[in-house]
Amino acid sequence: xxxxxxxxxxxxxxxxxxxxxxxxxxxxxxxxLAAAERVVLLGDLIELRERxxxxxxxxxxxxFEALGEATAGKQVVLLAGNxxxxxxxxxxxxxxxxxxxxxxxxxxxxxxxxxxxxxxxIARWMPRTELTLAYPGVRLRPDVYATHxxxxxxxxxxxxxxxxxxxxxxxxxxxxRAGTSAAEYEAVLAPMYAFLGALANSASExxxxxxxxxxxxxxxxxxxxxxxxxxxxGRVTIPGAVVALNRLGFGPFxxxxxxxxxxxxxxxxxxxxxxxxxxxxxxxxxxxxxxxxPLAGDDEAExxxxxxxxxxxxxxxxxxxxxxxxxxxxxxxxxxxxxxxEAEGSPRVENVxxxxxxxxxxx
Length: 363
Prior knowledge:
Layout: E1 3-6, H1 23-33, E2 38-42, H2 53-70, E3 75-79, H3 89-97, E4 107-109, H4 117-125, E5 130-134, E6 137-141, E7 144-147, H5 161-173, H6 182-202, H7 205-223, H8 227-247, H9 259-277, E8 283-286, E9 310-313, H10 321-324, E10 337-341, E11 348-351
Parallel strand pairs: 1-2, 2-3, 3-5, 7-8, 8-9
Antiparallel strand pairs: 1-10, 4-5, 6-7, 10-11
């Protein structure tokens, strides 16, 4: 079955990160999916951590109605990520009520209706599509496992907000930063996702936008053109903060805040998660870090786990100037990745937004 995998659309994101809200970008995405027999939406599809759920769903409704037309008669598999974890919550709640721990692979049909949360509302807008929800991962072939990849934050050594929060939750739950099962990862991270989702429904959009902007601003200042900012943050403030965090037992974190380090550390962390969730898989697909790959020129060893599984990242459709650092579409973080999986063979990475112009500037 020819499968198209896309992730990290972040539909409804505040600011200008949501590229798919542009009609020409949406058309390119839907045109690319026309050749697929099955579509996998690999997490962080809608931005439930920046907007309240009701207005967000109304905002994204036109996209799902168009997607439903494009995928009529086809299979669509929806996976939850860290930014839309609430998509899976109705089924996770039932599992908890039944006293069953979360396994690495779970899949449920999504009937239309508000009893099934935001996913049920999405199903209502795609009535001719066979919609299922999978969490935390799904086997797309006997040798291919796919997950959003957010569990890697527990192992990530780059001190991003998400990994700092994951480390804090590891301390609060008494489970630390390791995980030996999907249930253990979920036990640490789910409370953080629930809090952030509830915050988005309580705080104003302005407050949420300022928080998002502040995180991107730090990254941009460290990697941007301002020499003073780079010195103060990159050589003084951040290293000092990292030393303090590590001494307090929240690490180990590195003081490097670069795209290259995020790729390297993300792959190392995902390799550890893959060994837990998908032992024996030949290919493990994930998103989350927004860096597709492997791309031409990438070191294949970085994209291979200790057991020999190949890692594949589905990239992002979010515009992230703080990661692109002025490189435009030459940047590996340029939005628009589709990951293709055929009935056999290795996945293939494709970008369908080459040549599209975006008016943007780093924070």
